C-alpha cells in the first residue's frame, strides 16, 4: 500500500515542500530510502524502527521503500523521522489514508518514540500558512510556529500521541499563540558607565543612524561596557523585522523554546571564530554570526585579533546587507543587515597614549598591529572614537549620566524623522537619495568643501561625512545640516585611527 505525507526541506531560511512517499509491499524484508538523503536521513531507518516498536505499534516485516520527492533536491537532517514513521503506519492501514492530507509534518524521533526539536520550524509554518495547511511538529518547536496567525499547530510529545490524535482517539489541542517576550528583560543601563561623555555621544549617533562604529582605548577604559549596553538603546523590532530575525535563528537551530524575537539581536563572537562561524557556511550551509545579528548589533571585541581573512569577508555584508554562500550542491543567500560595533587597543601592549602606564611597543609593532585592519574595511566604518582610561578619582567625581530610556527616546525620535523622510536609516543612504535629504546651510556647505579639500576625501569618504552629519542634525531635530553638525562628524572620521 502507498502513503504520502507532506514535509519540508530547508534551503537557507526558506522551506521547500517535500513529499514523503512510503510503499509497503510483499517480498524480502528491506527498508530502502531514496531521494538524495544525507547521512542523518539515511540513519533514520533505525530510529523509526525502534520508535515504532517501543511505542507499542506494529513495524512491518515487508519490503519498505521510502522516496523523498523531488528526487533532485538534497535532503538533510533528522526532521523527516516523524513524516516517514507516520507514512509507514498509514501504508499499513494503522492510520486513515486521508489523515495527513491537510498537514505539513516534521520532527526527529528518539528510540523510545519521543519527539525532539528540529531547526527551521517557523519557516515550515510560513509555508504551511501559505498553502492553507496545518502543522504537526515536536512540542519543543510549538512556540515558534504558533506565533503566526491563522495557523493550527499541533505539537505531540511522542509518536504515540501523534497517532492517537490522527486516529481521533485523543485529539490534541492546537497550540495557543505564545506571549511576547518582555521588551525590558535583562537590558543594561548606559548610566552605569561613569564619564566617557564623548564615547556615549558617539554611540548614540551610531545607533540612531545605523552607522558602524570602532572604539579605540586602553584596557579597562569601558569599551566593552559601552558596547554591551548599546543593545538597550535599540528600539524594538517591527513585526516584519521580528519575523525575519526569528526565521534566521530558527534555521540556525538557536531559537530554543522561544517564540517571536522582538528585541534586536546582539552577537559577540570570540576572536577565534572561524570564517564559517562568522559569515556562515559549512558542508551543510548554516547562518553565521553576521546573519544572526540581522537587524541588530555585531560586536567584535579585540578587533585586530580576528583572523585577517575573516575580517575581510565582512566587506560584502557590510556593503550589501546579504551573505551569499556557494557550494557544489547549492547556493544559498542569508540576510545580514547588521550594525558593526568593534573595539580595540591602541597598540599590542594596550597602553599607547595612556597617561599613567608607558607603552612598550616599538613603532614597527604598533604599525603592524594597526595594519591588521585593512583600508577597505576601515572605509566601511563611519565613526571612530577614542575611549580614554579614567582614574579612580575621575570616576568618583563623574556625575551619573542619562538613563537608557532617555537616550533611547531621543534615538527613536531621530529614527522616526528618518523613516518619515526617506523610509530608511541614514547609514543606508546612497547616491541621489543621499543628496536629496542632506540639505545644508550655506556655512555648512562651504565648511564641508574646505574640509574635503584639506583632507583629500574620496567620494565614499565625502558621502560618509554627509550621512553622519545628517544623523547628528536629526538628533538635534534640525531640518537642515548646520556647520556645527558637519564639524562634529569630521571629529569622528576613521582617519582618527591613524593618530591614536
Topology:
Blueprint: E1 2-11, E2 14-25, E3 30-34, H1 39-42, H2 44-54, E4 63-69, H3 81-91, E5 103-105, E6 108-109, E7 115-116, H4 121-131, E8 134-136, H5 142-145, E9 153-154, H6 159-166, H7 197-209, E10 213-216, H8 223-230, H9 239-251, E11 266-267, H10 275-279, E12 280-281, E13 286-287, H11 289-292, E14 297-300, H12 308-312, H13 315-320, E15 322-326, E16 331-335, E17 339-344, H14 363-370, H15 375-378, E18 383-386, H16 392-397, H17 404-422, H18 431-437, H19 442-455, H20 459-475, H21 483-491
Parallel strand pairs: 3-4, 5-8, 8-9, 10-17, 10-18, 11-14, 14-17
Antiparallel strand pairs: 1-2, 2-4, 6-7, 12-13, 15-16
Helix pairs in contact: 2-3, 7-17, 7-20, 19-21, 20-21
Characterise this structure.
There is one protein chain. This protein is of the alpha/beta class and 500 residues long. Helix content is 37%, strand content 16%. It folds into two domains: 2-166, Ribosomal Protein S5, domain 2 (2-Layer Sandwich), CATH 3.30.230; 190-424 and 493-499, 3-Layer(aba) Sandwich (Rossmann fold). It is built from 21 helices and 18 strands. The strands form six sheets. It has a five-stranded parallel sheet. The protein has a four-stranded mixed sheet with strand order 1-2-4-3. Helix 2 (44-54) crosses helix 3, helix 7 runs parallel beside helix 17 (404-422) and helix 7 packs across helix 20 (459-475). The model is unreliable at 496-500 (pLDDT under 50).
CATH architecture of the largest domain: 3-Layer(aba) Sandwich
Number of helices: 21
Q: Give the beta-strand count.
A: 18
Multimerization state:
single chain
Amino acid at each position: 500500500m502507498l502513503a504520502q505525507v507532506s514535509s519540508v526541506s530547508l534551503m537557507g531560511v526558506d522551506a521547500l515542500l517535500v513529499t514523503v512517499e512510503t510503499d509497503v509491499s510483499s517480498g524480502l524484508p528491506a527498508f530502502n530510502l531514496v531521494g538524495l538523503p544525507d547521512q542523518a536521513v539515511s540513519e533514520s531507518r533505525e530510529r523509526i524502527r525502534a520508535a515504532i516498536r517501543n511505542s507499542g505499534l506494529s513495524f512491518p516485516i515487508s519490503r519498505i521503500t521510502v522516496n523523498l520527492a523531488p528526487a533532485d533536491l538534497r535532503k538533510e537532517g533528522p526532521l523527516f523521522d516523524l513524516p516517514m514513521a507516520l507514512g509507514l503506519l498509514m501504508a499499513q492501514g494503522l492510520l486513515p489514508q486521508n489523515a495527513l492530507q491537510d498537514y505539513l509534518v516534521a520532527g526527529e524521533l528518539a528510540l523510545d518514540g519521543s519527539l525532539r526539536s528540529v531547526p527551521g520550524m517557523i519557516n515550515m509554518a510560513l509555508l504551511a500558512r501559505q498553502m492553507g495547511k496545518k502543522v504537526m511538529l515536536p512540542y519543543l518547536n510549538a512556540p515558534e510556529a504558533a506565533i503566526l496567525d491563522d495557523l493550527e499547530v499541533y505539537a505531540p510529545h511522542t509518536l504515540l500521541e501523534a497517532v492517537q490524535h490522527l486516529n481521533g482517539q485523543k485529539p490534541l489541542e492546537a497550540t495557543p499563540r505564545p506571549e511576547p517576550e518582555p521588551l525590558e528583560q535583562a537590558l543594561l543601563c548606559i548610566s552605569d558607565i561613569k564619564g566617557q561623555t564623548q564615547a556615549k555621544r558617539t554611540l548614540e549617533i551610531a545607533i540612531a543612524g545605523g552607522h558602524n562604529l570602532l572604539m579605540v582605548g586602553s584596557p579597562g577604559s569601558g569599551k566593552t561596557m559601552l558596547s554591551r549596553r548599546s543593545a538597550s538603546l535599540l528600539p524594538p523590532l517591527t513585526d516584519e523585522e521580528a519575523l525575519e530575525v526569528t526565521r534566521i535563528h530558527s534555521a540556525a537551530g538557536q531559537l530554543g523554546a522561544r517564540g517571536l524575537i522582538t528585541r534586536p539581536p546582539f552577537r559577540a563572537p570570540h576572536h577565534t571564530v572561524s570564517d564559517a562561524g562568522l559569515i556562515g557556511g559549512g558542508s551543510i550551509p548554516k547562518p553565521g554570526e553576521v546573519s544572526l545579528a540581522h537587524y541588530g548589533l555585531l560586536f567584535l571585541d579585540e578587533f585586530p585579533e580576528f583572523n585577517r581573512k575573516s575580517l575581510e569577508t565582512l566587506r560584502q555584508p557590510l556593503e550589501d546587507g546579504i551573505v551569499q554562500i556557494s557550494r557544489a550542491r547549492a547556493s544559498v543567500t542569508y540576510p545580514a543587515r547588521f550594525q558593526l560595533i568593534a573595539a580595540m587597543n591602541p597598540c599590542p601592549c594596550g597602553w599607547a597614549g595612556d597617561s599613567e602606564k608607558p607603552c612598550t611597543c616599538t613603532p614597527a609593532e604598533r604599525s603592524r598591529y594597526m595594519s591588521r585592519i585593512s583600508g577597505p574595511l576601515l572605509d566601511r566604518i563611519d565613526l571612530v572614537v577614542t575611549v580614554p582610561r579614567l582614574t579612580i578619582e575621575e570616576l568618583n567625581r563623574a556625575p551619573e549620566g542619562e538613563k537608557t530610556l532617555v537616550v533611547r527616546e531621543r534615538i527613536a525620535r531621530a529614527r522616526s524623522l528618518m523613516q518619515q523622510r526617506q523610509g530608511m536609516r541614514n547609514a543606508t543612504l546612497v547616491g541621489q537619495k543621499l543628496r536629496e535629504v542632506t540639505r545644508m546651510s550655506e556655512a555648512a556647505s562651504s565648511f564641508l568643501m574646505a574640509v574635503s579639500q584639506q583632507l583629500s576625501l574620496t567620494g565614499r569618504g565625502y558621502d560618509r561625512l554627509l550621512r553622519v552629519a545628517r544623523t547628528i542634525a536629526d538628533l538635534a531635530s534640525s531640518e537642515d545640516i548646520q556647520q556645527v553638525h558637519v564639524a562634529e562628524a569630521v571629529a569622528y572620521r576613521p582617519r582618527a585611527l591613524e593618530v591614536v
